[in-house]
């Protein structure tokens, strides 16, 4: 039987004709197709996405800064002192060395954040002499609210009498006191943002012995 080389070549090449090989693109293959339009669209989409993200970030940052500088900017609370049961208050009693003075401290919080302070002590002074301590228990002052805090001061009358200026004030019928306190605590805004803060309070008190009247003017300062 005679061998046909042409037939053998046809048979060997037949699978390649019937089953074409899949083109694998690696490196800089000149036979691989190139689609510049698809690459341009992908790059453009990425740039648009980055631009939108940056714009949103700038808008959110601007809103937060604006709120902090305007609405959430801390304002000083308004504080006043009101005496209780002054008609029964006896400053100079022969059988006692102290005179308890009940009072209500009113705190007006104009801020959008609440303030919670821990136990503190206020001091009542006659000139430079401390004549009473005012206990201030832990209290939450809600946002944009008015809070009344009840407390009392045990005035040490002996220290008053020992001061030569006090006798002169008694003759006039009135004397002045100064009250100071520092309230340390935390400010909370929208129940998320928390920050330590201190409120410094100074009150000038005028006590009229003749009419048994009590007038106070307070200054407060909040520091974060």
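Q: What amino acid sequence fits the structure above?
A:
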């Amino acid at each position: 039987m005679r061998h046909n080389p042409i037939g053998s070549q046809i048979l060997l090449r037949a699978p390649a004709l019937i089953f074409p090989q899949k083109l694998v693109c690696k490196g800089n293959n000149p036979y691989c197709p190139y689609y510049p339009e698809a690459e341009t669209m992908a790059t453009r989409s990425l740039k648009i996405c980055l631009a939108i993200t940056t714009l949103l970030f700038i808008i959110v940052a601007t809103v937060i800064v604006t709120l902090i500088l305007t609405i959430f900017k801390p304002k000083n609370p308004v504080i006043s002192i009101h005496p209780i049961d002054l008609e029964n208050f006896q400053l100079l009693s022969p059988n006692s060395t102290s005179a308890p003075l009940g009072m209500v401290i009113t705190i007006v919080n104009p801020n959008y954040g609440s303030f919670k302070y821990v136990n503190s002590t206020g001091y009542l002074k006659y000139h430079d002499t401390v004549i009473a301590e005012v206990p201030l228990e832990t209290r939450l002052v809600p946002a944009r609210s008015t809070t009344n805090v009840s407390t009392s001061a045990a005035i040490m009358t002996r220290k008053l009498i020992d001061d030569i200026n006090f006798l002169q004030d008694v003759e006039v019928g009135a004397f002045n006191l100064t009250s100071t306190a520092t309230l340390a605590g935390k400010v909370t805004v929208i129940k998320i943002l928390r920050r330590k803060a201190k409120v410094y309070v100074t009150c000038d008190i005028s006590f009229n012995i003749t009419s048994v009247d009590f007038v106070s003017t307070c200054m407060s300062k909040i520091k974060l």
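Q: And what stands out in the fold?
A: Residues 7-12 have pLDDT under 50 and may be disordered.
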